[in-house]
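User: For my dataset I need records formatted as: sequence, then structure tokens, nothing else. Please produce one.
Assistant:
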Amino acid sequence: MESIETEAGANLPEPSAPAKPVATHRVVTGSLAEVFESLLVTILLALFATTFVLQAFKIPSGSMEPTLLVGDHVLVNKFLFGGRGAWYEKLLPYRPVRRGDIIVFRFPYDDHVHYVKRVIGLPGDRLRIVDQVVYIDGKPLSEPYAIHSEAYDPFGDSFPPADPAAAQDRLRPEWAAQIGNYIQGGSLVIPPDHYFVMGDNRDDSSDSRYWGFVDRDAIMGRPMFIYWSVRATPDDYTDRSLAGTIFGIEDTIAHIRSRTRWHRMLREVH
């Protein structure tokens, strides 16, 4: 086909026949391929992010009150903690787990549900609780985040137990069989690559006092901030069936304006 002249006064040829629909089909096919490619890349990036970088969790219990409330939804940074000695840790912004860090980890027993607690004891620490005060290597630990209720908790006042055998009815069986191996001179000695965690709500928290240490490999990450918070109770999260989950979502959506704790939105977690 001859090219069309664009100069003024040029004689233009007769209009050619309409273009064949093949070119149109090629354009549509290309567009669908681009959409599919973009969708695939988005899915892969989302899977990468939720696997290695970020993950959303909701708080179903009051063990971390007042820092985290039932119904808080947090975004967890999974790309933070190093310490395993891998060569690439020097090239990435990793850091070791520190005392005072709030962590999300896999519970060591049962179905390995995710727990959220605060790191109190580090590997090698000698930990002891006397009159509700935590001592690390004989020195009292400053804990402005911790609260105590009127309910009496023997492990909140004194830990480790002087007689583990007498306290085994309050301990996880696996922990009851092991705890005596880590008690030296009235203190609990934390082994390598393990951590002692507790809830900020000391008298209403199932934590390391009752079921033992958290393995380093079980730690997933650290909550960064609360991206949404809704007024809820622990009972709202007891039914984990599909029907219960669907009902909970529908109920929350129906009352989203009245139940949302707007003042907690985008609050950092410390």
